[in-house]
Each structure stands twice: as structure tokens, then as C-alpha cells.
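Lab notes, practical 5.
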Amino acid sequence: MTAIAAMSVALFSCKDDEDPVIPVVSFQQATRTVDESAGTIDVLVQLDVASPNDIQVGYSLSGTATEGTSSSNDYQAMGTYGSISIAKGSTSGTLQLQIKQDDVVEADETIIITLSASGTATLGSVSSTTITLHSDDLGPKVSFTTTTTTINESDGTLDIELTLDKAAGQDITVDYAFNYDDIQTVATALDSVWAYNEDVPSQYYDFYVVGGTYGKLTIPAGSSTAKLSLRFYSDFLWDENERIEITLTGAGTGGQLGANTKHTVTVKQEDGRLIGLLWDPSYNDVDLDLILWIGDGTDFDALTGSFSAATTPRSEEVFIPTVFADLISEEVGDAVFGVSAVYYEGTANPMNFEVHHVDFVDGGFEAAADRDIIPGAYTLANINAWETFDDVQIEHTFDLTGGAYANLSDITVPASGSRQATYKLPGSISKSNVRAKFASRAHVWGLRK
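Output from the prediction step:
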């Protein structure tokens, strides 16, 4: 009996064949943010209990950051790729990541590390961790490449270049604004679309438009330059040289303003022929409006007009750009222009006036001795009723023949039976044979709203 009892005790105390303990493995942190200048970082995994054996925990990498040995990669996993070692008796292991720093401004990127199950450990609640790489670089500086440009009014499109001091790692949206603080200054040119939408009186703005999204310009990722485009159109008004001031106001996310944040465009008056209507400033309560017509000698259409209140200086003028005259010669050959001086009110009887033809070339008017001056005279019988434009007559004509102006007629007052045409608001386009031939290129005329 004694031997049997002893054997039973020995069997009861033996535990060598008990199932081994399987630890639970997890990341220490579920999320983490580091600067790209952090260098080498440790990503810690931990066990809930120590293992009596060495453990290899597998992992995989994903996210927006790129891994590899190339200098273009964002980071590199050190040690045995895809495996984290935890020595027996230890409760933690480390995955080292070498974070690579560059000088490219870019959006935050992510490294996602996901653990995989193995026979020696089970996955805990934090089996995946996300590391956010934050770019600590200052954004590239955006500046105008040059600070000034001079353009002729008829040159068409002007591309103003913006430059980054280094390529952008992401799209950069640059904000800009035009200086419209003093919209009634003659020397300030205003964008037509902006001015029209803001109800600015049309006499204060010029015919140019801004390409793309107004006030914003995008510099694509990887690029170091962009262009702000302005499209200029010829018009029928003579102006002094004008300026357009553009200021960069912000570079959005990922950029900063550089040194040259202002660009000034000088818009030079293009060549052409100025037709001016002048009368004695001593006349009281006088108002004449000058209307320019175009036709074939028998049929005329209103081309443009110059309108003013009676209190303005005693003159009216319209301008025929050379590019417009060249277009007419190219498209339809010879043409006839007509001039109407619409007389509304006045106490002078008769009221004497003059129509001047003056060529403007290379920034200057021709000498006074070379100008054509045609005198005229109206009496009170020639006064037109306000806002009554029926039977407005053409009192003066001249031809465009072979690209040159010729055959300037005398002034014939309305009562003398000169050629007539029905008035049309400036910018309207009738279907006459002459205008229809080049209506498709009306943008060259710069007709104002």
C-alpha cells in the first residue's frame, strides 16, 4: 500500500507537459505624429506577458508615405524587413524607421504599420498604428519674376510670370488683387469684367480681361513657374498711358510670399486716328455728342459714340485704332466713315465748331500743321430733342481707301439734306452687308458695354 501511494504523489506533481502560455502583442501607441526631421524613430510593440522563447512578429506597411532605400522615398524600415524580434523573457520589441528629410513642402503623409498573427503570439486590440509625417519645411517663396511690364494696347495677350524659389511638393494657390483704390484716376486701367460687375461707370475702365479664375492662380506641384494672363482689346477712346497694379496677397497652404509681390503694367496708347469735336467754351449750356459710323457710302451703322454732360469740357472725341482700320482693309477692302455731331442745346446762334483729324503714331500726335480741320456751324434750328435719335444725320464723311484715309468732306448741317442713318446704341451690331463680313472678329474692336 505504501508503494502505491508514493507513485500517486509523484505523478500528481509532474507539470512538464502543460500547454505553453501564448502572449498577446500590441503596439504601444495607435497614433503618433513626427516631423520629417525626426531622424530614426522607434516603434514599440509590447507583450502582455514574457515569452520563454524568441518571438518573431510580422508586419506590413502602407499609407501615403513611400518606403525604400532611394533618396526620393520618405522613410526606410531598418532591420529584417517585415519582422520584429522579441527576445525570450522580454515583454517588448522595437521596429526602427529612418525618417528622411527633404526640402520639398508637401502635405502631411502617413505610415501605417499593421501586425500579423503568428503561432507564438496573438494580436491585441492595437494591432495597427498610424504615424503621421509632418513636413517642417517652409513653403516656397512666390514672387513676380519682374516688377514692371510695358505693353501696347493692341498687343493682345500679356503673360506675367510668377516664380517659386523651389519647386512645390503640392499645388499652391496664389491670391492676387488689382489696385482699384482710385478708380477715377485717368492713369488707372480697370479690368472690364470686374468693373462691369461692380457697377463702375464705363468711362473709368478699359477693355482688358483676366484669364482663369479671377484673383487666384494655381502653381501645380512640381512646377516652379506660373503665368497670370491679361487679354487686351483695342477700343475707340484715346487715353494717356495707363497703369495696372497687381499685388500678391497670399500663397495659400504650402507657400509664402517672396520679395516681389507687386507688378505694374504700363499700357501704352496704340496708334490710330483721333477725331475730335471742339467748340468755343464761352458758349452757354451747349452739349454736342460725337457719333462715328461705318458703311459703304449708302448704308451706315453706328460704330461708337462719345457722350458727356453739358458741364464737361467743350470737346468730344473718338479714336479709330490702326489695327481696326487694317482689319477693315483686310476683310472688306475700302469703307466709308461718317461723323455726326448731335446738337442738344445751346444759346449761341450760330454755334461754331470744328472737327479735327489727328494721327497718333509711336506715342505722339502729328504736328499741328499736318492735321485736317473741318469747320462747321449749327443754329438753334439744328437742336435735337433729348433722347430722340430718329433721323440723326451724318454731316461729315471720309474714306478708308487702300489702308489710307482720304476724301474728307465738308460739314453739312442736318437741314441741308445730308445722308441719314438711324441711330443705334454703341456696341449694337446690325446685319448690314458691311458689318456682317467682319462681325465674327468684333472682339478686335473693343466695343464697350
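Observations recorded by the TA: The longest strand covers residues 335-345. Confidence is low (pLDDT under 50) at residues 1-15, 181-194, 200-205, 423-449.
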